[in-house]
């Protein structure tokens, strides 16, 4: 990949400040004027790149996708191993994944998707992309006969149903122990979908035994 242009760099700077402003003050209270104040620049400079708050919002949602796809940052995407897949599943059901993007903003934009077709389309792109990348990893493990998953796409979809439901439900949980225990339970269910026999987390390090049909 080539170097980013000055325009792309400037746009990223604006998007990140908009994200921080919306996270701290709420999306409704965030504005181009406030972003400009934080950056100590004239609002017209921001409007040179993003004419309206809606344009900036759409760019921020694209930024969400880039952040979430970092979960698939493996050394060699053409040679996925079971260790790569396990690392991905572990990250999906971890605080690291949950902290990639602010929950409040994520669900604010999700709510907006019911009113704005463009945001709805962008959210579908995010969710479809996450599922597609996981399905590819499962397919590669299938081809190497490391797994025997009948439908990688269906398995990936079910795992993300668990992920999406888990974080929405657990965002309401204030007990840290209960949060961790439930998240581990959901992760074990994800491994079961892939055909793994999971050793109890209380018995020491997590050991996965792939179950392959004879």
Indicate how many domains the architecture comprises.
2
Q: What's the main sheet like?
A: 2 strands, antiparallel
**How does CATH name the architecture of the largest domain?**
Orthogonal Bundle
Tell me the number of helical segments per DSSP (H or I, 4 or more residues long). 10
CATH hierarchy class name of the largest domain:
Mainly Alpha
Multimerization state: single chain
Give the spatial strand order of the biggest sheet.
Answer: 1-2
How big is the Rg?
Answer: 20 Å
Contiguous uncertain segments of 5+ residues: 201-207
Instruction: Let me know the average pLDDT.
Output: 87
CATH-level-4 superfamily name of the largest domain: Tetracycline Repressor, domain 2
Structural class: mainly alpha
Q: How many extended strands?
A: 2
Global geometry: globular
Give me the strand/helix succession.
HHHHHHHHHHEE
Classify the beta-strand content into a percent band.
under 5%
How much helical structure, as a percent, in the residues?
Answer: 55-70%
Report what the structure shows.
By secondary structure, this protein is an all-alpha fold. It has two domains: 6-51, Arc Repressor Mutant, subunit A; 68-210, Tetracycline Repressor, domain 2 (Orthogonal Bundle). The protein has ten helices and two strands, in the order ααααααααααββ. Strands 1-2 form a two-stranded antiparallel ribbon. The model is unreliable at 201-207 (pLDDT under 50).
């Amino acid at each position: 990949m080539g170097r980013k242009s000055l325009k792309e760099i400037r746009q990223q700077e604006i998007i990140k400040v908009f994200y921080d402003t919306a996270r701290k003050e709420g999306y409704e209270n965030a504005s181009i004027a406030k972003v400009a104040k934080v950056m100590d620049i004239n609002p017209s400079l921001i409007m040179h790149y993003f004419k309206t708050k809606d344009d900036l919002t759409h760019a921020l949602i694209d930024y969400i996708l880039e952040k979430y796809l970092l979960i698939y940052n493996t050394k060699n995407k053409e040679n996925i191993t079971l260790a790569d897949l396990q690392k991905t599943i572990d990250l999906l059901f971890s605080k690291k994944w949950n902290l990639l993007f602010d929950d409040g903003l994520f669900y604010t934009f999700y709510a907006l998707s019911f009113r704005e077709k463009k945001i709805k389309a962008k959210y579908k792109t995010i969710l479809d992309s996450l599922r597609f990348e996981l399905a590819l990893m499962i397919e590669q493990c299938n081809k190497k006969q490391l797994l025997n998953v009948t439908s990688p796409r269906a398995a990936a979809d079910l795992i993300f149903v668990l992920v999406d439901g888990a974080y929405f439900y657990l965002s309401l949980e204030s007990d840290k122990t209960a949060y961790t225990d439930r998240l581990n339970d959901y992760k074990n269910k994800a491994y079961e979908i892939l055909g793994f026999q999971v050793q109890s987390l209380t018995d020491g390090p997590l050991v996965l035994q792939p179950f392959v049909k004879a």
